[in-house]
Amino acid sequence: MAAVAWRLLLLPLRLLYHTLRAGWWLLMPPRPRKLTADTVLITGGGKGIGRHLAREFARQGARKIIIWGRTERCLRETCEEIRSWGAECHYYMCDVGNREEVYQQAKAVREKLGDVTILVNNAGVAHGKSLVDSDDDALLKSQHINTLGQFWTTKAFLPRMLELQNGHVVCINSVLSLCSIPGTIDYCTSKSSSFAFMESLTLGLLDCPGVNATTVLPFHTSTDMFQGMKTRFPKLFPPLEPQTVAQRTVEAVRANQAFLLLPWTMHLLVIMKSLLPQAALEEIFRFTGSYTCMHSVKGRT
Ligand SMILES: NC(=O)c1ccc[n+]([C@@H]2O[C@H](COP(=O)([O-])OP(=O)(O)OC[C@H]3O[C@@H](n4cnc5c(N)ncnc54)[C@H](OP(=O)(O)O)[C@@H]3O)[C@@H](O)[C@H]2O)c1
Q1: Of all protein residues, whose CA lies closest to atom 11 belonging to ligand 1?
Q2: What pTM does this model have?
Q3: How far is the CA of 242 from the centre of ligand 1 (A)?
Q4: Ligand 1 mean position to 150 CA, how many Å?
Q5: What residue numbers bound the domain in which 52 lies?
Q6: Is residue 20 in some structural domain?
Q7: What is residue 240's DSSP assignment?
Q8: Which residues are annotated as catalytic?
Q9: What is the pLDDT of the chain when averaged over all its residues?
Q10: CATH number at residue 38
């Protein structure tokens, strides 16, 4: 009983300490993790944000880069570019939605290239259709790739990270996991489940020294994924550049930051969402065109 009372007394002090420490780190960031001993595996590393992540990890000194994807041409191009800078890069064809293929390729990576110390779950698809307009297979595919794919890749690499007490699991999620829009219902659902996966994983790693997680939640980014998306005020809410997302992601991993919303103004959206009544939120979404922005998107599989 005395121990519980003591812990209760200490709790506000500990909260204050962590809040002040986070504030101090904003002003005086601690020395970032060096990547020179790290082997980084990026799913969907052939193009879009994934290709920029591969470039950025290489630029910031990672020892080996391994990229996975389904399109060999894109993977080869990315690898050749990174190798031309003198960095080590390898690619494997792997559909992360296929559990057996993930386990098989993870084994091949381990046997040929050694242990992966940073896993970046970036691969994703968006069909860009409403529930009634989507065919069932497309709805299943987005859950298999965007959510379940991370179960298989993380299960494949995390046990060894825990053994080595050295590892980092990264997820390129989306701000849509916290604030859904219509017209891409399967994508929003998959990203929300993936966010829950990462929150649970992050807390589960609290007592695992040397192993951490980072979840990145970017706003609309100018890649092929949401090509054609029309927002009402593009000057006010411009899309992010994929290289910015990649750079901020690598910095967050090196600083061991658990969650990163991009841009920072998305924090306001989250605060408004938890405070304002639904009707007021609907006014904001209507005003900004969020209800209709998916109408012009072609969608990709
Ligand atoms: N673009 C945005 O507005 C935005 C915003 C927030 C978050 N995100 C997230 O950022 C991540 C990257 O998206 P992006 O914008 O770079 O899109 P992108 O340009 O369409 O790239 C998607 C990548 O995922 C790979 N991929 C798709 N399905 C795969 C599968 N089954 N197995 C392995 N790789 C697969 C693709 O390669 P292959 O087709 O060759 O397999 C490609 O490299 C996604 O998780 C996305 O949800 C994007």
Answers
A1: 122
A2: 0.94
A3: 11
A4: 13
A5: 33-288
A6: no
A7: B
A8: 187
A9: 94
A10: 3.40.50.720
Structural domain tally of the chain? 1
CA 233 – ligand 1 centroid, Å = 25
Q: Flag whether 25 is in a domain.
A: no
Q: Is residue 298 part of a domain?
A: no
Ligand 1 pocket test, candidate residues 52, 127, 140, 172, most atoms within 8 A of CB: 172
pLDDT of 236 reads: 82
Q: Is 79 in the pocket of ligand 1 (CB under 6 A)?
A: no
pLDDT tier at 186 (50, 70, 90 boundaries)? Answer: very high
Query: pLDDT of 27-73, one tens digit each?
Result: 888 889 999 999 999 999 999 999 999 999 999 999 999 999 999 99
Q: Which two tokens stand for residue 65?
A: 């880069």
Q: Which residues pair with 90 in a beta bridge?
A: 66
Tokens standing for 185? 């219902």
Q: How many other C-beta atoms can be found within 10 angstroms of the C-beta atom of residue 211?
A: 20
N-term to C-term CA, the chain: 57
Query: What is the C-alpha separation between 247 and 225, in angstroms, rounded?
Result: 19
What residue type is 278 in one-letter code?
Answer: Q
CB count, 10 Å around CB of 113?
15
pLDDT per residue over 271-293, tens digit each? 999 999 999 999 988 888 887 88
CA distances from residue 127 to 147, 178, 226, 294 in whole angstroms, order as listed: 15, 19, 9, 10
Check pLDDT > 70 for residue 300.
no
Q: Which amino acid is at 128?
A: G
- Residue bearing the CA closest to ligand 1, atom 7: 174
Residue 47 lies in a domain: yes
Predicted pLDDT of residue 2:
81
